[in-house]
Design a protein that fits this description.
70% helix; mainly alpha; two-stranded antiparallel sheet; single chain; 5 helices
């Protein structure tokens, strides 16, 4: 079922949710770099306090965005929203596990996923989504502005 929007008297398809599979080298490179930083934070950042906790969560959402952007072509806001919602879903799972007394037995998986729910993590996920969305749309804004300036 296609969605349609009335624009200038004609029915035009809305392609805002359209996704295409493709491989993006730049996004893939950034996802590998962010993954390396996240691994360093997880393994060597135990005494770093907020650097590991808060900025690690910010970088985690940015990493998920880059992973999705490396294989999907769609609006950056959709990818950022999916990355944010994935972080929130993990935080909700942590809350439910703590509520029902469940615990992940694998130490590495517990470090990666986390064991304690925290509302500051949701803020960090939101900040990561805003940062990556800003970086993704910044280039498009300047490109559009230069095209408009040359047409004048």
């Amino acid at each position: 079922m296609a969605l349609f929007r009335r624009s200038t008297g004609w029915l035009c398809p809305v392609t805002s949710l359209a996704m295409q599979f493709r491989f993006d080298r730049t996004a893939s490179l950034f996802s590998v770099l962010l993954f390396a930083v996240l691994v360093l934070l997880a393994t060597h950042g135990a005494g770093s306090g907020w650097v590991r906790g808060f900025s690690g969560d910010v970088l985690a959402v940015m990493w998920v965005y880059c992973m999705l952007a490396s294989v999907l072509q769609t609006r950056p806001s959709l990818l950022a929203g999916v990355a944010f919602l994935l972080g929130v879903a993990i935080e909700l799972a942590q809350y439910l596990a703590a509520t029902f007394g469940l615990r992940i037995s694998n130490r590495i998986l517990r470090i990666v996923v986390g064991a304690t729910p925290d509302w500051w993590d949701v803020l960090a996920y939101g900040l990561g989504a805003v940062i990556v969305l800003g970086l993704a749309t910044r280039g498009r804004f300047w490109q559009r502005r230069s095209i408009v300036a040359t047409k004048l």
